[in-house]
């Protein structure tokens, strides 16, 4: 009797061990499945989606963040509408009414100074406290920051122009020539002020529309860029590689 009990106990222990191993294997497989699901989560898949110009940041950060990005993306609709309205009013005054910039500045200053002068005298005549006009001081560090940023951009532009002038990069040369030609054609259609206004309106509309429909725009842009790269490779193989500049570059390399 005792022998039968001793034999049954190891069998029960082995059965319990097998059940425990199966449960452990099931837990490990389920945990691996959950990890795989996490890796294939929508956020992970969204990160793999191609973004226009290879950007990795949101549109708001690409535009610099802060108040300017809020205005361009219409985060504050009243402020964005006010800025666009002021720009439109300036364009109408200068382009349609043919108002001159110097005259506008002088008239604004005359009206502002006359209003403040009369208001201050009216307060003193009525024995009221005079107007508190704040003192305006422009900090030197703000000018230095702007000058430093402008200097860096100009130096970068000079480096690119120098490399193009030395014949080191045929691709950049063609891009600059085509870009300048497009600007010259557009410049014949509009004057400088109208062109600035069009660029301003584009900045107020295109980023906002792109942010709303980026999931639809990016796949189309990806296909378009692939087609352009294919055409450029064909053009490079049949035309650019046969130019003397390209052969000289290959010999020097």
Automatic annotation (TrEMBL):
Database matches in Pfam families: Reticulon
Topology class, membrane: Multi-pass membrane protein
Keywords: Endoplasmic reticulum, Membrane, Transmembrane, Transmembrane helix
Subcellular location: Endoplasmic reticulum membrane
UniProt xrefs under InterPro entries: Reticulon, Reticulon-like
Chain ranges of the Reticulon domain: 68-253
Membrane-spanning segments: 79-94, 100-119, 173-203
Gene Ontology CC terms, in alphabetical order: endoplasmic reticulum membrane
PANTHER family: RETICULON, RETICULON-LIKE PROTEIN B6
Name the record gives this protein: Reticulon-like protein
Species the sequence originates in: Cardamine amara subsp. amara
